[in-house]
Design brief:
Distance between the termini: 33 Å
Number of domains: 2
CATH class of the largest domain: Alpha Beta
Strand order of the largest sheet: 2-1-6-5-7
CATH topology of the largest domain: Alpha/beta knot
Helix content: 25-40%
Radius of gyration: 22 Å
Number of strands: 9
Bound molecules: adenine
Largest sheet: 5 strands, parallel
Shape: elongated
CATH superfamily of the largest domain: SPOUT methyltransferase, trefoil knot domain
Strand content: 15-25%
Length: 225
């Protein structure tokens, strides 16, 4: 069982993964738990503000330390070992390998930033790991947290069928091979002959070769690794 606690200003966004798909099935099978925490509930004022102007001036607002720290404290009362992950473009890049590492943890807390991000003192004192989903900026950590939860959940035993996860792209460091389904011919386009041969060893060899060719063509950077 893996538990995700999510600190966010937009808990409803997480319906996207809680209600449908692989993560939802993991929850139904009691292999995963997702708990969202509304950061505004930890505000210290009646307006439920959780952000303020940046020292030194400049655009945007910065998320304050106090509400985040109070919320983390509450989460840790139940799960003292929970690892705190902050989603931001400054983080370590999320890869297949990092998803596997995170999936070995029993409990993680995902901190979703909005605006210009969180006060640096949160990162210094409270955050165990800063993770980015890629070199671009999105408008908040929520979508990034959902990407992380989905990619990590796939490695929690039982969430996927075993075969499914073994055959994933990147499981062998390469891109996936091409897939085909019925009919055999459509608009003059044929399914590769070998896939109809019933000869499994040949099919496996063809798929491996296709993976390699596709990776060489589309992702030279992966070949160099
Ligand atoms: N928040 C904004 N952009 C992000 C990114 N690329 N990765 C993770 N969190 C983010």
């Amino acid at each position: 069982m893996m538990r995700f606690d999510v600190i966010t200003l937009f808990p409803d966004m997480f319906c996207a993964i809680k209600d449908e798909g692989v993560v939802a099935r993991g929850i139904k099978k009691s292999l995963l738990e997702i708990h969202t925490w509304q950061l505004r509930d930890y505000s210290d004022n009646k307006y439920r503000n959780v952000d303020d102007k940046p020292y030194g001036g400049g655009a945007g607002m910065v998320m304050q330390v106090k509400p985040i720290r109070s919320c983390i404290e509450q989460i840790k009362q139940k799960n003292p070992s929970s690892k705190i992950i902050y989603l931001s473009p400054q983080g370590q890049k999320l890869t297949h390998q990092l998803a596997i590492e995170i999936s070995k943890l029993e409990s993680v807390t995902l901190l979703c930033g909005r605006y210009e991000g969180v006060d640096e003192r949160v990162i210094e004192h409270d955050v165990d790991l800063e993770v980015s989903i890629g070199d671009y900026v999105i408008s908040g950590g929520e979508l990034a947290a959902m990407v992380l939860i989905d990619s990590v959940s796939r490695h929690v035993p039982g969430v996927l069928g075993n075969v499914e996860s073994l055959n994933d792209s990147f499981a062998n460091g390469l891109l996936d091979y091409p897939h085909y389904t019925r009919p055999e011919i459509i608009d003059g386009q044929q399914v590769p002959e070998v896939l109809l041969s019933g000869h499994q060893a040949n099919i496996d060899a063809w798929r491996e070769d296709q993976s390699l060719k596709s990776t060489k063509k589309k992702r030279q950077d992966l070949i160099k690794k």
